[in-house]
Write a structure and sequence with these properties.
- By secondary structure, the chain is α+β, with helices and mostly antiparallel strands.
- Helix content is 23%, strand content 23%.
- The chain has four helices and eleven strands, in the order H-E-E-E-H-E-E-E-E-H-E-E-H-E-E.
- Strands 1, 2, 3, 4, 9, 10 and 11 form a seven-stranded antiparallel sheet that branches. Strands 7-6-5-8 form a four-stranded antiparallel sheet.
- Strand 10 and strand 11 form a beta hairpin.
- The longest helix is centred in the N-terminal third of the chain and has 31 residues.
- The protein is elongated.
- The protein starts with 9 loop residues before the first helix and ends with a strand.
Length: 231
């Protein structure tokens, strides 16, 4: 049987063990750094529906930061699940790891079957104190202290488009409401909408959202490559 030098040398065995320990420490440190960075500084989000078509397509890869300032009109934000189910810390940690190593394709502890049981990307259409109403899928906004309504496009800091179409008669009431009665948002209430105004769930279903439910602001889109942009 072939003999190796470190079979006879205690010092060589110790040195080999130190090298293995150092390498494991580096690997663990890198993983911990990535997990912390991807949770608290910037993290990727894979859009799994067509709710933000035509601007953000299904399977788009976005990067989101949780440390941005309060959202402005027209900003795209990443929202917590609206069924108010909070995953335990160890499940959130496992999701982060698995999403990272599967390029955001899979997470072991995913959403529920409820329509609001998963995180989502939505656009901030109105801010706290605004008075709003919707007509034919278009939101009209009157900021606190103002006397006139303006369209959401006139109020937004950046241009964007929405996806609408006439709902077929045979749908028999399916689809999201095209009209919303006039209402005033309270303190720390944001009215969020999907760009796909006909099919996607948003504040027309679950109401205005608190800032605590906004997990971050979308910074840029990196995939598809022909749609790369900064928000």
């Amino acid at each position: 049987m072939r003999q190796r030098a470190f079979d006879y040398s205690y010092e060589m065995q110790q040195e080999r063990q130190k090298k293995i320990t150092r390498r494991l420490s580096i690997v663990i440190s890198v993983i911990l750094f990535l997990c912390l960075f991807l949770n608290f500084i910037i993290f990727p989000v894979l859009v799994k529906s067509d709710s933000m078509e035509d601007g953000i397509p299904e399977n788009a890869l976005l990067f989101v930061t949780p440390i941005a300032a309060s959202p402005k009109r027209g900003d795209v934000v990443y929202l917590s699940r609206m069924d108010h189910v909070e995953l335990p810390l160890y499940k959130r940690f496992a999701n982060t790891l698995v999403r990272f190593f599967t390029l955001q394709k899979y997470e072991p502890f995913g959403s529920s079957g409820n329509i609001s049981g998963s995180e989502s990307v939505r656009r901030v259409a109105a801010l706290p104190g605004d008075t709003i109403y919707m007509k034919d899928y278009m939101l009209y906004v009157k900021p606190s202290g103002e006397s006139h309504f303006l369209s959401e496009f006139e109020m937004a800091d950046k241009p964007y488009e929405v996806h609408t179409y006439s709902v077929p008669v045979e749908w028999d009431g399916l689809g999201l409401a095209s009209d919303v009665k006039e209402m005033t948002l309270g303190e720390d209430e944001y009215f969020v909408l999907a760009d796909n105004r006909v099919e996607a769930c948003d504040s027309r279903v679950y109401g205005a959202v608190k800032s605590s439910l906004i997990k971050g602001k979308v910074l840029f889109e990196v995939f598809p490559f022909n749609k790369m942009r900064v928000f």
